[in-house]
Design goal:
The structure holds 2 protein chains of 2 kinds. By secondary structure, chain A is mostly helical. Chain A is built from 6 helices and 2 strands, in the order αββααααα. Chain B is built from 21 helices and 2 strands.
């Protein structure tokens, strides 16, 4: 955890420096008659962030913050597996949205989570993973009139048919 | 006495069958919209506004105001049962509502939230009815320095009272404020902070993208990791008697939070551009500051649920005040309502009270009725919310991920934001492991677009002189309180050092 505390502070410091540099694309000083320039606000705030990361590193070095006193690993083997399976699933879900539509990706993700990770019965897994996109479709497209991504071209005939039901 | 006569006329109008029906539908819809992460009162009101052109203006605004009310109640439900705020106004409700639910006191938390919302709503409606013209004239005199001083106070409460690591809290605030600055510089119109020149950053980072990333994805990953998929099942039995007991308990344990929230929320709500979110966070901070037992906050103190919930309902009524009397919206939702009033052929402003008394007093009457129905519908649905908590976590978790991703998309209609959101989620998971508080970042990204222009306008007024925040009669005291709050942890540190030094000497 202690090493992680330094690494996190380091990453945030790099982010702060990047944002300071990016802010200088606009005027960071005071423009007479116009007030502070467009870059001033993010520039000085990123500067404060940078100072904070230095203080965090000092606290970690002096072992005054709880994470820097802990000898536990950031993630044990089971934790790493969990992150990989759960976050990996979310990642694939979002990647699938552009291909098989939001509703299709939702179905696949729910079935993966319920049946494979949750070890629920096949019947329950199928009922929930099919019913959820259907309910979402009618709530968003029909009631709230919000269109969610429909994926690639091949889903078109299917959604055209569904739209005839709600419009 | 004239006010009472007008008010009773308004109440009679609000109780007409069509208006009553619209209140019940509006409040129920509002509860669900408020509960859904990614959909808040703004989305609900904006999307449903066009269909209200079918009914008379008074009924239409009563319906939309009922949605607004319901959403203020509903936000607390997801804050407590899922740990995700259903709307930004319910962010502060997660701080103590979630720990209460995890302790198996979800029903107490839900009843406290409902009762506090009702108390906050009722107190502010009475204040609204009585002091409308006077309070509006006070808020009208507020300029940029006063508004920025208020923003400063909101952040200072986090630093002084958050109880977290100070550098990490300040870093979190700055991160949120800088993220809020992404997109375009509103004054010069130039693109700003377009990270790695990715065009998706041109439309800025919507606060919901960060909020859902942190509270939806990050929080869920953290919960799954710490509980290893086995979440403690709450064994809350709900009965009419139980609700009655919880109501009593919510009053005895949360009366202080309710009173602070009700009055503070109303005051913050009437300020243009402040609204329910900073109001609820400030009420939480002040309730914690004045508590005899501040350490119990964040661990499931009913006062910590009552204060923000009373405040957000109170503020939502308060934000209607400048909208109706001055034509200045007090919140994004009232801004949309204001747009609707113009379409209905009404001219918002002081003349509305004299020209359209039936409309104004019908709306005020509907506040009383909506508030009562929101309480009743909310309380009678509590068993359903408890049932949601009893669901196995391996069913609830994927549902929350799905809701988060759909909500993140619905907020901006851009897949870039969904990718950003899951990135924020993973980062939030690791930052939380290192004790970085993330609520300040979420508040900061909401307030950033208000704080920055008011600071720049103030400094333009003063030609770059910061003393403008100290010399003005209203801004001055607020700024000084904010600075004292920021320095509070430093005073504590010095005091501890002095006391520690003495004990070593002895």
């Amino acid at each position: 955890m202690r090493r992680g505390e330094f690494i996190t502070a380091g990453i945030l410091a790099v982010l702060a420096i990047y944002m300071m540099w990016k802010s200088t694309e606009l005027e960071v000083g005071y423009i007479r008659g116009e007030g502070p320039g467009g870059g001033a606000w993010p520039f000085w705030l990123s500067g404060i962030m940078l100072i904070c990361t230095v203080l965090i590193a000092i606290n970690a070095a002096r072992r005054t913050s709880p994470p820097s006193q802990s000898d536990e690993p950031l993630l044990d083997a089971e934790g790493r597996k969990m992150i990989l399976q759960v976050f990996g699933g979310i990642f694939v879900f979002v990647a699938l949205v552009g291909i098989i539509s939001m509703y299709g990706a939702m179905l696949v993700f729910l079935f993966y989570y319920l049946w494979f990770l949750g070890r629920h019965s096949l019947r329950l897994s199928l009922i929930i993973s099919i019913a959820t996109p259907v309910v979402f479709f009618f709530f968003f497209e029909a009631l709230m009139r919000v269109t969610l991504p429909k994926g690639m071209k091949f889903t078109e005939p299917f959604y055209n048919w569904l739209n005839t039901l709600i419009y | 006495m004239e006010i009472l006569a007008l008010l009773s006329g308004g109440l009679i109008e609000a109780l007409e069958p069509i208006n009553l029906l619209l209140i019940v539908i509006g409040v129920t819809l509002g509860l669900f919209i408020g509960m859904m992460p990614g959909l808040g009162s703004v989305n609900g009101v904006a999307i449903l506004l066009p269909i209200t052109f079918l009914v008379p203006p008074a009924s239409a605004i009563i319906f939309l105001a009922a949605i607004y009310y319901g959403a203020m109640y509903g936000g607390a439900i997801s804050s407590i049962t899922l740990g995700i705020p259903g709307a930004s106004t319910a962010v502060a409700t997660t701080f103590d509502g979630r720990p209460l639910a995890l302790k198996g006191k979800a029903s107490l938390a839900l009843v406290t939230a409902a009762v506090a919302s009702f108390v906050g709503g009722t107190v502010s409606i009475i204040l609204f009815t009585m002091f409308a013209p006077m309070l509006a004239s006070v808020a009208l005199s507020f300029g940029s320095p006063e508004i920025f001083a208020l923003m400063l106070l909101a952040f200072a409460t986090f630093v002084g009272l958050g109880g977290d690591d100070i550098p990490k809290t300040i870093l979190s605030i700055c991160l949120g404020l800088v993220f809020a600055a992404v997109g375009f510089d509103e004054i010069s119109g130039a693109p700003r902070l377009v990270f790695f020149d990715i065009s998706g950053f041109l439309h800025g980072i919507n606060f919901l993208v960060l909020a859902i990333g942190v509270y939806g994805i990050g929080e869920m990953l953290w919960t799954i990791d710490t509980t290893r998929g086995k979440i403690t099942q709450t064994e809350a039995k709900i009965s009419a008697k139980g609700v009655a007991n919880d109501t009593k308990e919510s009053f005895t344990k949360g009366w202080k939070g309710m009173s602070i929230g009700s009055f503070l929320g109303f005051f913050v709500g009437i300020l243009p551009a402040a609204g329910a979110t900073p109001g609820s966070l400030m009420a939480y901070g002040i309730s914690k500051l004045t508590s005899r037992n501040p350490d119990s906050y964040g661990k499931g103190n009913p006062d910590g649920v009552a204060a923000p919930e009373a405040a957000n309902n109170s503020a939502s009524t308060g934000s209607m005040l400048p909208m109706l009397t001055l034509g200045i919206p007090g919140s994004p939702t009232t801004a949309i309502l204001l747009g609707g009033m113009v379409i209905w052929g009404l001219t918002p402003g002081p003349r509305l009270f004299t020209d359209e008394p039936a409309f104004v007093w019908g709306l005020i009457g509907s506040f009383y009725v909506s508030n009562l129905f929101a309480l009743l519908i909310n309380l009678s649905f509590i068993p359903l919310f408890i049932w949601m908590l009893r669901m196995p976590f391996t069913i609830l978790a994927p549902m929350i991920f799905v809701l988060s991703i759909v909500g993140g998309y619905a907020a901006t209609n851009d897949m870039h934001d969904v990718w950003l959101m899951i990135g924020f989620g993973l980062s939030a998971f690791f930052l939380r492991k290192f004790d970085y508080p993330l609520a300040p970042a979420v508040l900061a990204i909401v307030l950033g677009p208000i704080a920055e222009p008011t600071l720049r306008q103030s400094l333009l007024l003063s030609s770059g002189d910061f003393s403008i925040f100290f010399t003005r009669p209203i801004a001055g005291p607020i700024t000084i309180i904010a600075i004292i709050l920021i320095l509070l942890p430093l005073f504590k540190l010095i005091k501890d050092k002095l006391v520690g030094g003495k004990t070593r000497d002895a």
